[in-house]
Amino acid sequence: MGSELLDMYRTMLTVRLAEERFMRGLSRGEFPGFYFPVQGMEAAAVGVIAALRPDDYYVTTYRGIADVLAKGASLEAVFGELLGRVTGMSRGKGGTMHMADPERGMMLTTGIVGSGTPIANGLGLAAQLRGEDRVTGVSFGDGATSIGALHEALNLASLWNLPVIFVCHNNLWGECTPLGAYTRTARLAERATPFGIPGVTVDGTDVLEVYDAAARAADRARSGDGPTFLEVVSPRILGHNFGDTGDYMDEAAVREARANDPVPRFGEWLVTQGRLDRDGLDAMRQQIADEVERALTVAMNSASLPADELYTDVFAPGVDVPR
Amino acid sequence: MTTTLTTRELTFGEAINDALDLALANDPTVFLLGEDIADPPGGVVRLTQGLSTKYGTHRVRATPISEQAIAGAAIGAALGGLRPVAEIMLMDFMTLVMDQLVNHAAKHRYMSGGTSHLPLTVRTRIGHRRGAQHSSSYEAWFMHAPGIKVCAPANAADAKGLLLSCIADDDPCLYLEPTPMVRSRHRSEVPTGDYRVPIGQAAIPRTGSDVSIITYGQQTPAALDAAAILAEEGISAEVVDLRSLVPLDRHTVLTSVAKTRRAVVTHAAARFAGPGAEISAMIHEELFGQLERPVRRVATASTPVPFAPSLAQIHTPDASTIAESVREVLR
Fold this sequence. Notes:
The complex is a heterodimer of chains A (323) and B (331).
Chain A: H1 3-28, H2 42-50, E1 57-61, H3 65-70, H4 75-83, E2 106-110, H5 116-130, E3 136-141, H6 148-159, E4 164-170, E5 173-174, E6 177-178, E7 199-203, H7 207-222, E8 228-233, H8 251-259, H9 262-272, H10 278-300
Helix pairs in contact in A: 1-2, 1-9, 1-10, 2-7, 4-10, 5-6
Chain B: E1 7-10, H1 12-26, E2 30-35, H2 51-55, E3 60-63, H3 67-79, E4 83-90, H4 98-105, H5 108-111, E5 121-126, H6 139-143, E6 149-151, H7 156-168, E7 173-178, H8 179-183, E8 188-191, E9 203-206, E10 211-215, H9 220-232, E11 237-241, E12 244-246, H10 250-260, E13 263-270, H11 275-287, E14 296-300, H12 309-315, H13 319-330
Parallel strand pairs in B: 2-3, 2-4, 4-5, 5-7, 6-7, 10-11, 10-13, 13-14
Antiparallel strand pairs in B: 1-8, 6-12, 9-11
Helix pairs in contact in B: 1-7, 3-4, 9-13, 10-11
C-alpha cells in the first residue's frame, strides 16, 4: 500500500484543514452555522473507511465530516450543505447533522445518538438478501453505548449474521460527561461479547492500526462470518460542538491528546518512512488549503434555496403536502 | 373502459394476508419482518400465516421483541433498495419506534434533498378492550409528523387495496389494522389479483343529503350503523370513509359537506387534538359561510383506554352516540 498511505494522509489532512477553515469562518462571522468538530479522530475515521470498498454502505453521525469526506464526498458538496445552499449534497436541506451522499454509499447521517445502528442492520440485510458481498459500516460515539437502540441492533446483527461493522468512536466524552461518569464498562467493545460479536479495541490515533482492524472486520463480514464491534479510541481535543470551549475537560489530558495529534504524527511517519519528503508534505498541505478555500468560496457564492423548495421532497413528487 | 373485477369473499384478516402474499409473489424486493410473523404461529393473530412456509424465512422474518431494531432494519433495507413491510404488533408499541419512524423514516427524503427515499410500510394493529397499554389509537401523532403517509382501511377490499398501494409506494406508509375488524369472521367481496386502492382517496359508502358523517377505520361501521338508524327517522346521512389520513382527501370531504352543510366527525382516537380537530378546522376554514351548524366531533374520551367493561363501553362512541350528535346538528 504505497499510494494508499498517501491517500489516507491526504484525506486526514483535508478533514483537518476543512474543519479548521469552517470553524474560523464561524468565529469570524463570515457565515452562520453550527458544527461538531472531529479534531483528533481523523485517523480513526479515515482508517476505517480506507479499509472498505467504494460500494460499501456507511452510516454516520452528526460528528461525521471525516466519514463523509473519507467516503468520497467533494468539499464543495460538504461546504454547500454546511451553509444550506443549493450546491450542498442534499441541496442544503439536511445541513450539518444530515449529510447523505448515496451515490458514494454514505447512506444516512443521524443527529440522534445511537439511532444509526439499527438502520445499518437494514442496509446489511439488503446486501445479504440480494446475495451481494457489500459491507455496511456504522459510526457512533462512545455516548451511544448507553442507548437501547445499539443493544437491540447488536442482538439482531448477531442473530441474522449481518455484514455490519459497528464502529464505536470512543473519544472518552458523552457530550460534556466523561466516560467514567456514565458507565462502569472498562472497555466498550466488551458490550459486544454477550451478543456473540467479537469486540476489538484499537488506538484510534494510529491510522494503520485502525486500518488493519477494519480490514479484518470487513473481511469477516464479506465472507459471511457476521458483524464486528470495533472500538476506536481517539481522545477528544475540542469541545462537544463549535462554541463549546471544553473548559470542563482536564487540561493535562487535552495537552496529551494534542501532543498525540494523529494528523501530524502520520505525516511525520510518512517522512521518516521515505514515502514523502518535507517539501512534498508542505506542498500537499498548501494544495489542500487552496482546495478548501476554493470550495468554501464556491459554497458561499452559491444560491440559497428558493422558497418553493419548502414543500418539495416531503413526499414523492406529485403528492400534496398537507397545508 | 369498464373492467369487471373478479372477486372472492374474504375476511378483513384474509384480505391482509392475500395482499402480503401477492406482494411477496410479484416483487422480489418485498420482505416482511416482525415479531412472531413466521410459521408457526404466523403472527399473534395469524395474519401472516402460511407466508414464511411459502416464501421462506429469509423473506418472512421473525424478529426478537425489539421494535427499534425492526423499524431500523426496515429503514436501512429501504435505503438499500428493498421494500420492507414491518409489523409492529400494536399501536401502543409505536411509542418504542417513534425515533426511527419520525426522526428517520419520515424526514429522510427531505433531509437528503430528495436524493434518497424510503419505500417502507409499517403495519400496526389497534388493540381493543385490552386496557390502557394495548388499545390506543395514536394516528394523530403520525399525521403531525410530515413525511409519513397514514392509511386506515375499514373493510376487506380496502384492507387489501390500500396495503398493496402502501407496499408499492415510494414513501413511508403507516397502515392501521383495527382489532375488531381483524378478528371479525365477516366475509365480503374482495377483488382478486393486484387490486389497489389509491392512497389519499376517500370513499362514500353511503350517500345522503342532510348531513355528512366523516370517519375512518374502526369507527366506520358505527358511522354506517348510525346512518341506518337515522334513515328510519327520515334523516339522510352521507358517510365519508377517509381511508387515508395523510394525504387527506380534502376534495371529497369538502364536496360532501358543501352539499349537506352539516358535518359530524367520528373516530376511535381521543377527541382532544385528535384527527377530527384537523378535519373540523378544515371544514370551518373552507365552508364557514355555508355551514348550517358548527361541525361536531364524536370521538373517544381523552383518557387512557379503560379496562373496566362498564367504562370501556362509554369510552368509545357507538352508533347511537353518533346518531345523537347528528340529531343535534340537525336541530
